[in-house]
Amino acid sequence: MDQEIQQKGYANPESLVTTEWVAEHLNDTDNVRIVESDEDVLLYDIGHIPNAVKIDWVEDLNDPLVRDYLDPEHFAQLMSEKGITPDTTVVFYGDKNNWWATYALWVFQLFGHDNVRVMDGGRIKWEQEGREMTQEVPSFPRTDYPVPQRDDSKIRAFKEDVMEHLEKRGPLVDVRSPGEYSGELLHMPDYPQEGALRGGHIPGAANVPWARAVREDGTFKSADELREIYEGEAGLSEGEDVIAYCRIGERSSHTWFVLKYLLGYDNVRNYDGSWTEWGNAVRAPIER
Amino acid sequence: MSLDRQGQIATLVEHYQNPRYKGILEDADVAMPGGSPECGGSVVIYVKVGKEGRIDALSFTGEGDIISQAATSMILEQVQGEGHTMDEILALDYEDFVDRVGREAVGSRTRNATLGLSTLKSAVRKYQKDSLHNGSAAEPACSR
């Protein structure tokens, strides 16, 4: 266990690894697969961690026709192509404070691939430390990854779940920007098709913009600092059933990771339908 | 000759690192925002219109991924280089522009690649609308 991670007091410190740990395991390709997942889709092409493979959330993880994730057969196929077995330790990293890395990790969890880690600090920390980068795309022998069962129920919330959650006055955390939360911003300017008919937030949701969980260097804040934000300010508590949401479920996967792994919340779900569904849904109540 | 994927990426990276027409245009007629820094990228396109609907000057500011920022630089270079009028800008085809940027490099991120072009078109429409309402060109956006 990295001392640097251990000192931050997380409930599940093994869910994070340091850049140093990754540097020491670059060639442990039989056991470890480093996966880069970015918002900026060309970053991998212009340079990545040696022996890292790329997973693109649009082209690899989304179903092209249904608003859903890939099916178990395609997940097994993807794992095979990336040389990943069910026992492989998968270490995710990426740009934007590991935003997309945690999103990819969340999708892996839908398929029960539990042996997952995030490189604390993400791509920017690796770069700023002057560590080795390459444009060489590695090739690994295909694996025979068995088709898994996909279980959405534990970590994914659907609109009906949120409705039920509302009736029970369960805690919700809206991780969008304050402008989106207040309803000032209905959608991204110039892209009304990605927006919503109504602006605001799900009634009772606390607003904690997702990036508050990280420090300026891209690493996660300590458990104490995170508790102060999510429990002290937003009023969440560990024993509760929490639902996080944003616009399409990507930013909230970051908060989901923080609550589940770093603070040890047993019951936290990501509502990936998020505001693009809720803000448009008939009879879905909102608050401004 | 069309570039392969690596060539397309190299062109995009070159524009990203050395953007053309980057910066605020102080006497612009229109300053039009587009996109989102939270998703892909955001830009502001500045347009100054001259006689007969010709574009006198263009510039952009913005932040975001390589594709959105580089493609914005590319469309401004194209419009300036080819001396497009406002109507010609509005007639530019998104698919043709994605081909020009490099479809293999852009992949599924066509929206990011057309952010600059769509925002430029919005800027032109705003200028035309304001001109129609005011009976003359809009006031410089940056003086407000």
Global mean pLDDT of chain A: 94
The quaternary state of the protein chains shown equals heterodimer
Supply the helix-strand structural class of chain B: alpha+beta
Arithmetic mean of pLDDT of chain B:
89
| Sheet with most strands: strand arrangement of chain B | 1-2-3
Q: Helix segment count of chain A? A: 12
**How many beta-strand runs of chain A?**
9
Parts with pLDDT < 50 across at least 5 consecutive residues of chain A: 188-193
Number of helices of chain B: 7
E-strand count of chain B: 3
Walk me through what this model shows.
Chain A contains twelve helices and nine strands. Chain A is of the alpha/beta class. In chain A, helix 6 packs across helix 11 (251-262). Chain A is globular. The N and C termini of chain A lie far apart (45 Å). In chain B, 50% of the residues lie in helices and 19% in strands. Chain B is built from seven helices and three strands; from the N terminus they run αβββαααααα. Chain B has helices at 5-17, 66-82, 86-91, 94-101, 103-106, 110-113, 115-134; strands at 30-36, 39-49, 55-64. In chain B, strands 1-2-3 form a three-stranded antiparallel sheet, covered by helices on one side. The longest helix of chain B is centred in the C-terminal third of the chain and has 20 residues, at 115-134. The interface between A and B is medium-sized, with 17 and 25 residues.
Task: Output the keywords.
heterodimer, A: 288 residues, alpha/beta, 4-stranded parallel β-sheet, 31% helix, B: 144 residues, alpha+beta, 3-stranded antiparallel β-sheet, globular, disordered C terminus
Q: TL;DR of this structure?
A:
By secondary structure, chain A is an alpha/beta fold. Chain A has helices spanning 3-6, 19-24, 43-46, 57-61, 72-81, 99-110, 122-128, 159-167, 178-182, 223-233, 251-262, 274-278, and strands at residues 16-17, 32-36, 52-54, 89-93, 116-119, 172-174, 206-207, 242-245, 268-271. At the A-B interface, helix 3 of A face helix 1, strand 1, strand 2 and helix 7 of B.
